[in-house]
User: Fold this.
Amino acid sequence: MSPGRLAVHPSHLIDQSRPVEFLFDGRTYKGFEGDTVASALWAAGVRMFSRSFKYHRPRAPFAMTGADTNCMVRAGDEPNVRACVKLVAPGLNVTPQNVWPSLNADLMSLSSLAARFMPAGFYYRTFMRPKFLWPWYERVLRNAAGLGYVTLETPSTYYDKEYGFAELLVIGGGPSGMSAALSAAGRGARVVLLEESPYLGGHLRHERQTVETATGERLPAYQLAARLSDRVFANRNISVELETNAFGIYEDLWIGAAKRDTRLLKIRAQSLILANGAFERPLVFENNDLPGVMLGSAAWRLLHLYATMPGRRAVVVSANDDGLRVAIDLHAAGIEVAAVVELRNDPDPTLAAALRARGIDVKVRSVVVKAHGRRRVERVTIGQMTDESPSLSGTVDVTPGTREVVKCDLVTVSIGWTPATGLLHQAGGQTAYDTTAAESRVTQLPERVRAAGRVSGTHDVTTAMAEGEMHGLDAAAELGLGDGASTELREKVASLKATQLIRNSSAVHVRGGKMAFVSFDEDVTVKDINDSVAEGYSSMELLKRYSTLSMGPSQGKYESTNTMALCSAANDEPIATTGSTTSRPPFHPVSLGVLAGRKMEPVKHTPMHDWHVEHGARMMNVGLWKRPEHYGDPAEEVLTTRRGVGLIDVSTLGKLQVIGSDVPELLEMLYINRWRKLAPGRVRYGVMCTDEGMISDDGIAANLGADRWYVTTTTGGADGVYENIEWNLQSGWTFDVHVANVTDHYAAMNLTGPRAVDILREVTDIDLRGDALPYMSVREGHVAQVPARVMRIGFTGELGLEIHVAAGYGLHVWETLMDAGRAHGIIAFGVEAQRIMRLETGHFIVGQDTDALTDPYMANLERAVRTDKPDFLGRPSLVHIEQRGIRSKLVGYRMLDAHVVPPEGSQIVVPDSTRPIGLEIIGRITSARYSPTLDASIGLCWLPADGCEPGAEFTARVRGDLLPGRVVSLPHYDPKAG
Amino acid sequence: MSFTLLKRGLRPNRPPAPMWREHPLQDHYDVVIIGGGAHGLATAYYLATVHGITDVAVLEKRYIGSGASGRNTAILRSNYLTPEGILFYDESIKLYENLASELDFNVMFSQRGHLTLAHTDSSMRTMQWRAEVNQIQNVDSRVISPAEVKKLVPFIDTSDRPRYPIMGALYHPPGGVIRHDAVVWGYARAADAKGVHIHQQTEVTGIDVEHNRVVAVQTNRGRIATGTVLNATAGWCSLIAAMAGVRLPVETRPLQACVTEPLKPFLDTVIVSGTFHFYLSQSDRGELVMGASVNPFASYSTDATLDFAEALAGHVLELFPSLAKVRLLRHWAGLCDMTPDFSPIMGTTPVDGFLVDVGWGTYGFKAAPVSGKRMAELIATNRTPELIAPFAYDRFFTGQIVGEKGAAAVTN
Amino acid sequence: MMQLECPNCGPRNVSEFRFRGEYVERPHDGADPARRRAWAEYLYFRDNRAGVQKEWWYHQAGCGRWFLAERHTKSHAVENTRYWGGEATS
Ligand SMILES: Cc1cc2nc3c(=O)[nH]c(=O)nc-3n(C[C@H](O)[C@H](O)[C@H](O)COP(=O)(O)OP(=O)(O)OC[C@H]3O[C@@H](n4cnc5c(N)ncnc54)[C@H](O)[C@@H]3O)c2cc1C
Ligand SMILES: [Zn+2]
Assistant:
């Protein structure tokens, strides 16, 4: 047996035959497999783990549950790790947090000397003057705050997600949860049981008391835990997830849980039983945060799970039988119990007698007043409570003259339990404070949600198991399995619950002293609460926000009840009317990595993607797509295309197949322009508007004949256009049409330039002679031996042949064209060259030159808007706009200096001395490029509708300089004219 | 150290003075402001201080700041897209800069800079556009390179690894964050001191209109006769307007936000990424404060959703991969009153005496001072100040929609 | 996560659907100068009820059907869903 450790016992989680070495604060320590960092360090005599948030006070394990934050450390590259649940591992490097320069010589701890000048919210009252010093003050505040740190070296780890379905989900693997799972599973329900610890059994696992099973058998608690646990694991209807923290209950019983801190579990449950227990309640007294002061259950966990001596000489504070049992168990482990400080008048006589028989002094109606010691508890002051205590407030006083000082290195506190109702509230349940029981009780639960055990105020093991069984049977019945709990069982649960012993003291605070902490997370004291309430932050929500109570990393789990009691006292109102703050997910903090899971950012590649990459394309993101921006020299791509021929991948265009006898009617409604007379074999450009009359998309529609049409949209526009068509078709447009979004089914490429026909002719059976394929027409046939659609369209001014083939043939056709074009000097060109050429031609791009407030009149499309059609999307708005007139217009321009290309977004201004820098904005440049064809700086810009005729000059503010430009008529460049 | 703190520290047993008082509900007030958020309280404050109108009640159904004002991520900036927007928000920032000393309450306005990241060439274009417009309005704002971003934010990944690499950013040095509750409390205290009555737990249940004129409001605590009512209820504004028979161009959407456990400071600036739909900053407490876009459907529920947390975490880690082990601590939602053009609705309505200061969507906290000041001016003078004229209710009928929509991605 | 019942597919996670907003009737005479206000109301103004609202949904990651739901905007309880012009389910 190692020093500080107890003899091996079946309830222990550690294996004392397997030592594990790890580091803490630079020194090597030894623990055992199964040890937590906290248990191993405690056994080794370490009594300070980190420093607190505000006053940098020494802190060490307090609850041993993973739910408090007194033992937060850094472990490896992970900040804010709860040492009390973090398992030791060989070589694990653990370091203290929030210390400077070191754990033992922390300079910031001096701040507690100034605590009287730092009441709650002190920062709201100071650091205001002089104003210019605030950034400096703020830096000091920031450096003092925070806990752990992050480094750039932290690697991103692999995380995954798992989806689950449960007929019944049980949260909590204690006696009530296991009973619920077993009874429901017994009826055939498929049950999932989540348990945060690495074992089942809940509190039974660390208790030694004798308990009674449903059949009347009596056995030690830890043995009952093992027995139930065996049955659960053996049941094939129950799947158990250990080390799994349920952190959120979302709508329609969608539950989020973190498994081993590395995997997100999302479970849709049909029914839910909450059996997630309670948190033991701290007592608020002077220096109640000193290392060595801990909850009774924490001492139990150290003793009975980790074979670790919590101390050598203990003072046990007790207000329920748990406290008396802690004293017995400490004594049994060889720890001297200096005194049992019992708040009640009449502790259980059998237990009290057992203690006296062991020579332990039980001081009734007594309380601990203050802990003493520099970095760990060395002594405590205890005293007799006055007759008036506890008052309404839960604040007790000690009769003068009854104080005595007792030497000890351990103070355990067992004064009550706070049901862990966070998840219950998230699920939509309600609770109300019950003054007699001195705890919150469930008053209402939503459908399909039940609560059993301590979370529902059932503290007795036998009762908890009966309650779990009852709920399990009822949940199964709701699923159509069996007919629920018997009346007998129901009555038994009701009567047991009604007669259970009260486990909670209404005393929460022992008066006197300033460093009496309600919140260990945030170092909030009783005085802070009283002051805040006096200042007007009187409701729980305002109090929380002002004092930061319950805003720390434990989310107030250990302070909520005490806060309610103290807040009600400060307001002089009953605790039942004080209410609580809203509990929000996550119930346990959950890492961003777990929430994020694997990277899920879709990327779309065209069928020719690899070719582009192999040929040196610089790829750019366009929506979800990757497109070649250029293959090295966009200007060269422009010139070669205009002189000879180029090929561009336009597979990213949205593509719709529309069939039916009413397609022209549909198009009439969708687009602002006319369609009815478009003959088979013809193609037309169209613009779509929203009902507000704003341009939403553009593209072409081709009449393929026999009621078959092919429609393209902008890249990224297809889904929206398709959805909108479908919405109209499913909400009143009664056209005979059928629409399919075939964007990804076709590859598309545009063969552009004077030599385009020469090349295509070599590889197609489509007639390209003379006027066989006029501008704006479409033919179906074969290209490179595969079925293809060829449209003669283009926005570059050059002859353009757009070829659409099934996606699987895309690369083949592309390569065939490139081969056929080699002799003609073909090159592949990218988005940049295309943009330059379309700008040279004067075409606008939806979303770049237009925005959500651009109507077709502003974009020079007045001739396309056919308000003489009976109706179309946007028509009423366009009629109004036409009447009202427009204020600005999109026009072409040239900068007077051909070598100045303004950044897109540059503003067009006029002088106005009343404006901040003497300029008023009258327009803006939306597209700007150097045109290699024209050797000019050209673009499109917005200008006031009057005064934007070709020839008008304007001033653009370009990188701070005011430079002249001139409006020109479009196109900038016309190959036919040139 | 401030004198008050010193005094309190030396006389620890004296209870501190209350910030605001409780009053019986009068049966008449000259002005009734519905909504105890930053907008309602700021309006009350400026009515009392600038215009001497103190017979004012602020009615709040829960506690002050319980709406969006106590739930927002408190990002302040003035680098908007339209000249009218910039002028307006710029005045607000200037008021905020002096607010702590004006109210004698440290609202902790922390101007540590604001970065809007661009990940696509189209957002680069919008950033340039915004920078240009801002500079012409004399607002400090410029486009910077990924290398400059890295210098300001060492933790950000400016490599090609993210799905959408950072191409640049709009940098707005005067932008930053503020302590939202402090703004609410500071205004409340100052308004209270001037005689304004702040009634918490007072819910408006009806508005009496006679001959197209407001005559009274009904509350759970009784009727109040008044000729002037200001609707400053943000997410609930449609419901209050309906009581007066007025319909609004508003849809209520929840917006969620969350914080991580506190960490030592490592991030000074506010980061916004439109493409990845998130924004984050590090508070003075050390928490990372994070948010994203509004919920995908209309709702009055303030429940947090898991989808939001998952998507947000994924997006944040795209750009900050070394934060994978940082834990999400608290997660909540507030209601946002979304308008079609991402701009507020301020001023008069078709019902006489019924005014609105609503439509604040996801961006209204920064506007509380200027809105309060200008709405107070409107109430006191009966004339619509020029600064808020572009945001008139009537614009939806006259086609004068505001152009902020062009820059809308993540809009705080 | 909330579940929504597609009239075609049954209950599904709400993340499969896209919301299009409150149901509004498009005036047939919106272009009439005398009906400008009514047209603007249709475009921009909404009841925005805190209660049961009739609204449009699209089963985007599913069958592609558009349908109407009557949903409580606070509790999110869905009273019924139906195709346009169809019978209500549940
Ligand atoms: C998560 C989130 C993040 C945000 N981030 C930012 C940001 O970074 N920057 C920014 O500038 N803005 C942000 N916003 C927006 C900003 O918070 C709001 O626009 C702003 O706070 C609105 O203030 P308000 O005073 O108008 O409304 P609120 O603060 O919402 O106040 C309205 C009040 O009206 C009360 N009320 C409602 N009905 C009644 C009734 N019947 N009777 C009496 N009282 C009633 C409510 O209880 C509420 O307190 C964010 C919003 C949210 C939700
Ligand atoms: Zn479906």
Q: What stands out?
A: Residues C 6, 8-9, 59, 62-63, 65 surround zinc ion (ligand 2) (CB under 6 Å). The longest strand of chain A covers residues 919-931. Chain A is about 25% helix and 30% strand.
